[in-house]
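Q: Sequence in, structure out?
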Amino acid sequence: EFEYLSRLRKEEFSRIIQEAEEHELEEPIEAEAIAALKAASCNVCYKKKYYDVLNDRCVFFPSVARTIVDYSLIEDAERLYYNGEEEF
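A: Exactly. Output:
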C-alpha cells in the first residue's frame, strides 16, 4: 500500500508541476521548492482511506490537487522550504 500511494503521489505531482511550468508559469519552479512540495505531499496527501462498497476497492483522500487548492500542501511546504527561513 505504501508503494502504491508513493507512486500515486509522484505521478499526480509530476503532472501538476509539468502543467504549471508549461502553461501557467514563465519560469521553471526552483528545485528546492519542488523538493519541499514533494516532502510535504508525503505528510499531507492520501492520508485517509475509505472502502468503496459499490466498486469493492479502497479510495484514498485527499489528492495532491485537493491539498494545493485548500492550501494545506503549501503551508506544510513553507515549513520545509529552506527550513522556513526563506519565503516560499
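The longest strand covers residues 48-52.
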